[in-house]
Amino acid sequence: MASSTANVNVSFFDYQGGRKGILGWILSVDHKRIGILYLISMMIFFAVGVTFGFLMRLELIAPDRTIMDPQTYNSIFTLHGVIMIFLFIIPGLPAVFGNFFLPIMIGAADVAFPRLNLLSWWLFVIGGLLAITSIIMPGGAPDTGWTFYIPYSVRTSTNVIPALMAAFILGFSSILTGLNFVVTVHRLRAKGMTFFRLPLFIWALYSTAWIQVLATPIIGITLLLVTFERLFSVGIFDPSLGGDPVLYQHLFWIYSHPAVYIMIIPAMGVISEVIPVFARRTIFGYKFIAFSSVGIALFGSLVWAHHMFTVGMSGVAMIVFSVLTFLVAIPSAVKVFNWVSTLYKGSIVVEPPLYYALAFIFLFSIGGFTGLIQGALSVNLHIHDTSFIVAHFHYVMFGGTGFGIFTAMHYWWPKMFGRMYNKKVSIVGFWTLFVGFNVLYFPMFVMGWLGMPRRYYDYLPEYHIYHLISTIGSWILIIGLLIMFINLLKALKSGEKVTKENYWGGETLEWKCPTPPYVFNFEFTPEVHAGPYEYKQNDESEKKVEEEVVQ
Amino acid sequence: MFNETNYVDSVNNAFYFIVAISTVLLIVVTFLMLYFVWKYSAKRNPKATNIEGNMTLEVLWTVIPLILVGGMFWYGYLGYEISATPPENSMVVTVTGQMWKWNFEYENGIKTDTLYVPVNKPVKLDLVSLDVNHSFYVPVFRFKRDVLPNKNNSIWFQPDQIGSFDIACAEYCGTDHWNMYTKVVVMEQKDYDTWIALMTAPVVDETEPLIQADTTNGKPNN
């Protein structure tokens, strides 16, 4: 325990508690330090995932072998998926910005279970390292795809079990974070912070936390069962032992579809924060946006078999899952319309976070519309397992959640670190990223429709032009990523120092605590008397403003 | 009519219908977004207006999309309905998928690695896997079906154009998953009949010697 004379009204960076140096960070239970630990470890895993993507695209630049053999390619796309999904996109916003800002935005000093929070991070690191070691251990990197479909995953001699165990451990990291957030939102809100005064980012994190808690155990058990199948030939899924490979697919997707809503709902929450701040007016349709997060979480848990339209399900199943897939699009559309309406009659200042937020709306919309295309049964039978699907999920996961993460970084960087990045450079990075992203992924829609299957090491000559364009797009994208990240990192060392509490003019509680926040966030426990986006200055009549000026 | 043209057209129509609506909506949303950012920039509009919401708009932009996606579902369903029930008189071919090739076996016992079919006749494919999951995919015919080791899926089609079309594997199955291409060759009926005759003609056994030696058990009979 810190001594009673330790001053906690210092920046959480400078605070010296019982432990010194690096131990004061990696054994810290401060949600802010944990958030930054997640940020650092996540960025390293993201860099590895991007490198694998780069190498894949390099192989695919032309037909025939370019730089690797098929076995290597198959392992690289497997690890690319495992790393990006389990180590970047799923934890991304909740683990970094949820951890850092959830307590602050509800007026609390920390989460409900700070030690559990630290455990979540350690599980994240251990799971991530185990996934990476699967590459270097004898047996070779797993080559099953991140979906680990049986029977192939119990036939291949590669290191499937380390990858499965890594995902199992990472699942616990996610479950414990979700549990922590649910309890924190219920029990630690400041006085006056009713549910309908919660910032929309908190509504998003709350809805997501429920999915994390309820759905993740299913993938945990399923991956454990695959491990047992490999080790002990149990025969639950392996058809040569009387098992059912389609049962595996149901169990896998009944988590992995809700998982994509774990990925996207927090990103939508970030957009809901950023738009009213830079439009300088109240958000349009607060309750509709709040409830749409809940609706997406609910409906999103009912559509999983739309990943399985080609396995030979009954007509009833096909119809039900197709209908539900179309329904889950509606709450997302409602959010987009409410965001755009928030720009109406705003007084808009275009700063770097807004660039990324607007790009999110555009790219996520493309991803969402192509989801509708895929939900149509007969169309699905054509484009399932083609590049079309690959393009779709990159538009929603990368153009959506990825850009949501970039928005959050550019929005909250000055508050977290007390340093500002170069705005002009961030805008150059943004445009490079945006152009590179579309050049990389849009051709995949076209060649998917023309019949280019996915997870293919090589392809027929008629698809060459699309692959060539796409690979060039990957280079532009990576340059954009480098510009963006180097700019943000440079700010930490030599960026303009920020000490004012409210850098952007927001009204949520993180803009009312010191920059960077104190150890327990606030100097005095806040009491809440208003909603998160009231912008009362817009409601004052001009006469009243004149009177104040005269006085 | 359950011919392949209708099925392909049905898939294409559903696709273009959804693409058209999506394109219009995307353009509208993007335009409004950028237009508002321009028109209500701080310079042009120094004072914002707090509009908390509008129930009419919320209802409209929930109900109208609901109707639109209902239509999208319906068009997708129509094509699926065609593909789900093969005609009674379909010619049956058993398709065997394995790592990493396809084999076809006809009702009369013919075995090939290329699928030959007559034009304008329904064909039903019974799909069998010898090892892991595969998927039988003919892009030009707009369908695929998974080929599973424990479950006999089937799919039917009726080709209406002569030609040679790619068959690809569309479920990741290991090292050479990308290299399982073969072809479906659609021929005129008479050419198909000729092919059948060729494939079922008795085979001359060229291992039999032309002159029989007079032996029993390898010992000469004399």
Question: CATH superfamily assignment of the largest domain in chain B?
Answer: Cupredoxins -  blue copper proteins
CATH class of chain A: Mainly Alpha
How much of the sequence lies in strands of chain B comes to 25-35%
Do you know the CATH architecture of the largest domain in chain B?
Sandwich
Q: Helicity range of the residues of chain A?
A: 55-70%
Major sheet of chain A: size, sense and barrel closure?
Answer: 2 strands, antiparallel
Overall form of chain B? elongated
The pLDDT mean of chain A sits at 95
Compressed to H and E, one letter per element, the order of chain B equals: HHEEEEEEEEEEHEE
Average pLDDT taken over every residue of chain B: 91
Termini separation of chain B comes to 74 Å
Name of the top-level CATH class of the largest domain in chain B: Mainly Beta
Total beta strand runs of chain B:
12
CATH topology of the largest domain in chain B: Immunoglobulin-like
Description:
The complex is a heterodimer of chains A (551) and B (222). Chain A is built from 17 helices and two strands. Chain A has 551 residues and is an all-alpha fold. Chain A has one domain (27-532): Cytochrome c oxidase-like, subunit I domain (Cytochrome C Oxidase, Chain A, Up-down Bundle). Chain A has a two-stranded antiparallel ribbon. The longest helix of chain A has 35 residues, at 245-279. Chain A is globular and about 70 Å long. The model of chain A has no long low-confidence stretch (mean pLDDT 95). In chain B, the strands form three sheets. In chain B, strands 3-2-1-5-8 form a five-stranded mixed β-sheet, with no helix packed on it. Chain B is of the alpha+beta class and 222 residues long. Chain B starts with a helix and ends with a strand. Chain B contains three helices and twelve strands. Chain B folds into two domains: 4-84, Helix Hairpins; 91-200, Immunoglobulin-like. In chain B, β1 and β2 (101-106) form a beta hairpin.
Concise overview:
The complex is a heterodimer of chains A (551) and B (222). With 551 residues, chain A is mainly alpha-helical.
